[in-house]
Design goal:
With 222 residues, the chain is of the alpha/beta class. It has helices at 11-22, 36-46, 62-70, 90-98, 110-121, 132-142, 153-156, 159-169, 174-181, 185-199, 204-213; strands at residues 2-7, 27-33, 50-53, 80-84, 102-105, 126-127. It is built from eleven helices and six strands.
Length: 222
């Protein structure tokens, strides 16, 4: 059972998400919050598998809560899925930098939201497909490259890990990557498990952002 915390300052949204996710056999809503301070306290108390956070909340916004729950240096991070009404908003980029494992627009289909919670819980991360290229392009243009090592990406990753990261950035699943490289799915998973700590990230989504930031893959023009 995947335990979920929901934080949103709009009661209608909280109730709707609670009903939507609670109706799934493998998802359980363990708490709700109307502001960031309460969300942070509940997350630390309840230790949910995923925290679904709104961006704009009173007391403490979703970016601040995200950084405190899963940002750099957090010993026992709580994976965060950001649900927002703002596409290409500075808040979204801030949430990614703070350590969010994914984000969706609130008008996404119910099944998409439920599946996103599952993906984040599994460490895969997720991003709204309609925004992927726009968001990543804007993200890269606005942010400086992360100083990973003097050798850059080539000094961090093996050739095979680099291949997998490039395919991951194209939106491929483990199964797709395995088929493309003619290897077992378990082999792909093993490479990913070794790769994420090298990059200093906790999810596939953050690995993709790293890849764009460090020039391992190019942002599509269209």
């Amino acid at each position: 059972m995947i335990r979920v915390l929901i934080a949103d300052d709009q009661s209608l949204v909280r109730e709707g998400l609670s009903a939507l996710l609670g109706a799934e056999d493998d998802l359980e809503v363990v708490g709700t919050a109307a502001d960031g301070v309460t969300a942070l306290a509940l997350a630390r108390e309840l230790r949910p598998d995923v925290a679904c956070l709104d961006i704009r909340m009173p007391g403490m916004n979703g970016i601040e809560v995200t950084r405190l729950l899963c940002g750099p240096g957090v010993e026992h991070p709580t994976p965060v899925l950001v649900l927002t009404t703002f596409d290409l908003d500075d808040y979204v980029f801030g949430a990614l930098e703070a350590g969010a494992s994914g984000f969706l627009l609130k008008d996404a289909e119910p099944a998409t939201i439920a599946q996103a919670v599952r993906q984040v819980a599994a460490g895969h991360g997720t991003i709204d497909q309609s925004l992927t290229r726009r968001v990543l392009r804007e993200f890269v243009q606005r942010r400086q490259l992360q100083p990973v090592s003097v050798q850059g990406a080539d000094g961090v990753l093996t050739a095979r890990e680099r291949d997998i990261l490039q395919l991951l950035a194209q939106g491929m699943s483990n199964e797709d990557i395995a088929a493309e490289l003619v290897v077992e799915v378990s082999t792909v998973k093993s490479h990913l498990a070794r790769m994420l700590p090298k990059l200093g990230v906790r999810s596939r989504l953050q690995a993709v952002v790293w890849a764009y930031q460090n020039g391992v893959v190019a942002v599509p023009d269209r």
